[in-house]
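May I ask for a sample protein chain and its fold as tokens?
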Amino acid sequence: MHEIPIDLLIIGAGPAGLAAAIGAAEAGVKEILLLDRQDEPGGILQQCIHNGFGLKYFKEELTGPEYAQRFIDQLDVYPQINIKTESMVTKITPDRKVYALNGRSKLNCYQAKAIILAMGCRERPRGAINIPGSRPSGIYTAGTVQHLMNIYGLSPGKEAIILGSGDIGLIMARRLTLEGIKVKAVLERLPYSTGLNRNIVQCLEDFKIPLYLSHTIIEIIGKKRITGVQIAPVTTDLQPVYNKAFLLPCDTLILSVGLIPENELSLMAGVKLDPNTCGPLVNSFYETSVPGIFACGNVAHVHDLVDDVSIESKVAGQAAAAYIQGDKFSSSFFKVNLGRNIRSVIPQYVATNQPTTLYIRTHFPEKGVSLKIGKNRIQQRVVTPGETIRYTLSPEKLKEFTNSITVSLEEETKID
């Protein structure tokens, strides 16, 4: 098969891929190709018609499509950026060969000087959480319902229950209510919500939608169409208390039970994954364990703000440009170790001479703790698993470390 040479190939034309392409173009890459399986660029943002995007990056409040369009409009300034939609990447090799099938052409093989992985993430379906019961219609993931309602104008039902209090589930509770659908409850098996606090207030409390913490579904009821669910509280080790179960009638069940980075292609290319994020191990330049292959956006770790996706993806685009142009990255890195109440940190390897922003997630919520990174302690009034903690390590701060960096939360209310 004839190989088509390309400077930079980006897989995914959502918010991460678009920002990475613009970052690379600004850094001087002469030929950039984005491949996306959808029929238009913008990714998941095109179905996120609610506002709240862009406050950090653009300093104004935008809807998802408006945010995506800001980047799409910039493509006119950079003729070296080409997008091929309806293109499915089927294979990547460690030596940066990319095989892609387009509905309007044959299978193509691209030989890239650098690759950026920006495939995003997918939702966990019912099969991933093994809810007992029958298999009637009326069961959807939150993103599927969002797509049906916001893109096609279809209503999923009349009475809904949402399992999972992630941001997508919270936002869909409000969206369903605004369309006249009764949201009878949002259920969360953990003793705290996994979404942003602002979404809990704006999407549940403002509409008086009940949130059942430490509850889960133990059975789905219905034949052709779901007619209800059996709900039970859970113990501290998340085991259902069956003798306290109760029935909630509904004709729609919406699952918002977590997101998984799309890393099948990453594994195919030999990229090492972090078991904590399920995304690639990356360094300060968002380069993976395979030289010349970079990863950014939700394929690297699931974000709570798309603004952070844009910021880190531009860094990845600029780094890919430097790689193509033959610039040498730092040859030494500090490994990031996870301390008390730290679930994940991105990047996992910090360049010893490069300012790097750490994106930190916690295991459980706490109040009055301090983020400890080396000699630095930063008081945190409240930390929750649904909100990212950001901390930038400057070259000056990096001088105090020798072999590794440990990030932890300390149980104290005062900064030393």
Summary: The longest strand covers residues 107-117. The helical segments are 15-26, 64-74, 142-150, 167-178, 197-204, 264-268, 306-324, 395-398. The longest helix spans residues 306-324. The chain has three domains: 1-122+259-329, 125-257, 330-416.
